[in-house]
Every structure is written in structure tokens, then in C-alpha cells.
Design a protein that fits this description.
The structure is a single chain. The protein is an alpha+beta fold. 39% of the residues lie in helices and 28% in strands. The chain has seven helices and 14 strands. The strands form three sheets. Strands 1, 2, 3, 4, 5, 6 and 7 form a seven-stranded mixed sheet that branches. Strands 10-9-12-13 form a four-stranded antiparallel sheet, with no helix packed on it. A hairpin with a 6-residue loop joins strand 12 and strand 13. Helix 1 packs parallel to helix 4 and helix 6 packs antiparallel against helix 7. It is rod-shaped.
Length: 319
């Protein structure tokens, strides 16, 4: 007899125990081939109970399908950005994809657990139940689910988990140079150093490197600053040009007054008789020159004082 193709079983799951981590579980879709409906319902129940005993909080298939329908997510979505969207809508971090197909009294059970954030295969189990009655198939499904859970725990213990959150959320993430989705983002990665960039329109991007340890979860909250606010902050904290020493303006102003006074004296002396009656003082040219030089120095000193007292000004363009 030709083997009947197995049907798809999708579970989205998240463990509550300290060992399994902070993940949630939801049954997305269950399909059976050559399996009586009553037997299918019993297997669903055994799988859910086994996962709950493993520390997972289970959302039923009916609840999951209702929420996904409201979010306009099509059935059968188990890869790529669609899987990430399911993870956000149902608040789950894992997906269990599999199926059970019957061939006479023999049944094939296939289960694969995925990470919703990146589609990483966490564990996979293939199990066959030969010449089995209904109860034996239920037991075999429970054993397969338990094996899958334990394999996933071993896998996760050798990997690292990176959780990225941002304010504002739904920011684009580049992880090790490749698009990884939007925040909030959860990824299981190889331990070691990883680089990420978080960016959203109208805000300055944030780039960072992080060291991940095996079996550990690193959670990073990124605050994205609007570009206008960042520009104003940079301008406010930018170093101002050095101001001239305070004595310079007074020295220049004083010099101007003194030189101007000397020039005025020379002008007053011009044309007067000297000690020798045959001669008169000719100081007009020197007096005019010194008065002009003194006036220029005085004006320069006043301008320096006015400029320093006014401080830096913001032009209309800067505003």
C-alpha cells in the first residue's frame, strides 16, 4: 500500500519554566491524513498536555487561528517575515511544524520545532508506530513531543539568545550585516561577538557590538533619537570659539584714548611760537594722524566689548 502523505501540525510554543525559557506556545494548525477525527482530537490533547508539562504555556489552535485571522495572516505561513509576524501577533518564540499520517495500522509522526524570530530549526523528531491501536498512537505522539522538547533544550543550551527592543518600536534591524526583521526581535545565535544596527525613519541609527555567551539571553533596549533633537543637542554641546582675554578690549580702548589725546595736544600746539621767536610749531600733520589712529583704536576696543557682551547669535537659517 502506498504511504499516505502526512498532514501538517504547527504549534507555536513558549516555555514558562526557568529551563525552557520565557517562550510561549500556540497550536497554529493540525492536519491528519488517514487518521479518524476522534483520534486526531485525542492526539492534539496529548501533545498539548506534554508541552504544558515541559513548561510551555499553550494557546489552542482555535485561539491562534482566530487571532491570526483578525491580523489577516494567511494559513500555512511558517517561514521568513510571515513567521516573524506570527511570532509578534501571538507573542510566541517557537513553532512546532509536523504531521501524522496513517497507513493501515502503522503511523508516521514527524515534528520540527522552529524559532519564529529567524526560522532556525531547534529540533526535529521522526517516529514510526507499527501495528498500533489508537491508544498506542497517542502515547507515541506524546513520546515524540517529549523527545522534541529535550532536543530543543540541548540545542538552546549551546546557543545564545539576543533580544532587541527599540523606542520607537518596529525599527529595522541589520544583524551581522544582513536584514533580520523589525523590533522587537528575538534571535538564537552562535555564541560570540555579533554586530547589529537599529534604524527607523526620521531617527539616527544606532550601531553596536555585543558579546553573547552560550545558554544566555542578552536583552538590549535601544533608544532612537530624532534627528532634529540630536542636531540641536550637538549644537548646544559643541565647543564655542575661544574668547579673547578680557584685558585686551580695555588695553585697545585705553591706547586709543591716549593716542587720540596726544594727537589733540599736537593739533592745539600747531602754529604757536617756539622758544625761538623766529620759528613756530608745525604739528598739524602729526596731530591729525595720531587723532585718527587713536579714534580707530578706541572704536576697535568698543567693538570687541560689544561683541563679547552680546554672545553668539543664532541666524534665521540656523533656526
Amino acid at each position: 500500500m502506498t504511504r499516505t502523505p502526512f498532514l501538517l501540525l504547527v504549534l507555536l510554543l513558549a516555555p514558562r519554566s526557568a529551563v525552557a525559557g520565557d517562550d510561549n506556545l500556540a497550536i497554529l494548525e493540525v492536519r491528519f491524513t488517514a487518521v479518524p477525527p476522534a483520534m486526531g482530537d485525542q492526539i492534539r490533547g496529548r501533545v498539548q498536555d506534554t508541552l504544558a508539562k515541559g513548561g510551555y504555556a499553550v494557546t489552542t489552535e482555535e485561539q491562534a487561528q482566530a487571532r491570526l485571522k483578525r491580523a489577516a495572516i494567511p494559513p500555512g505561513c511558517t517561514v521568513g517575515p510571515c513567521l516573524q509576524r506570527i511570532g509578534r501577533v501571538l507573542d510566541v518564540q517557537r513553532a512546532l511544524v509536523g504531521g501524522i499520517s496513517g497507513q493501515g495500522t502503522s503511523y508516521d509522526i514527524t515534528l520540527t520545532m522552529l524559532e519564529t524570530g529567524g526560522g532556525t530549526v531547534l529540533a526535529q523528531v521522526n517516529q514510526r508506530c507499527d501495528v498500533c491501536n489508537f491508544k498506542e498512537v497517542e502515547d507515541a505522539a506524546a513520546v515524540a513531543t517529549e523527545r522534541l522538547h529535550k532536543q530543543a533544550l540541548v540545542f538552546v543550551s549551546t546557543r545564545s539568545t539576543l533580544v532587541l527592543r527599540s523606542d520607537p518600536p518596529m525599527a529595522d534591524v541589520l544583524l551581522d550585516g544582513l536584514p533580520a526583521g523589525k523590533t522587537p526581535l528575538r534571535r538564537i545565535l552562535q555564541p560570540g561577538t555579533h554586530a547589529f544596527e537599529v534604524a527607523v525613519q526620521g531617527h539616527s541609527a544606532v550601531s553596536q557590538r555585543v558579546q553573547l555567551a552560550p545558554g544566555k539571553t542578552e536583552t538590549i533596549n535601544v533608544k532612537l533619537v530624532p534627528k532634529l533633537m540630536e542636531s540641536l543637542a550637538d549644537r548646544a554641546t559643541a565647543p564655542r570659539p575661544p574668547r579673547s582675554p578680557g584685558w585686551i578690549k580695555w588695553a585697545v580702548l585705553g591706547t586709543g584714548v591716549v593716542v587720540g589725546g596726544v594727537g589733540g595736544g599736537l593739533l592745539a600746539l600747531d602754529g604757536r611760537e617756539s622758544s625761538d621767536p623766529r620759528y613756530v610749531h608745525d604739528t598739524r600733520g602729526a596731530g591729525v594722524a595720531m587723532v585718527s589712529l587713536g579714534a580707530a583704536a578706541a572704536v576697535a576696543g568698543l567693538l570687541i566689548a560689544v561683541k563679547e557682551s552680546a554672545g553668539p547669535r543664532v541666524t534665521n537659517r540656523e533656526r
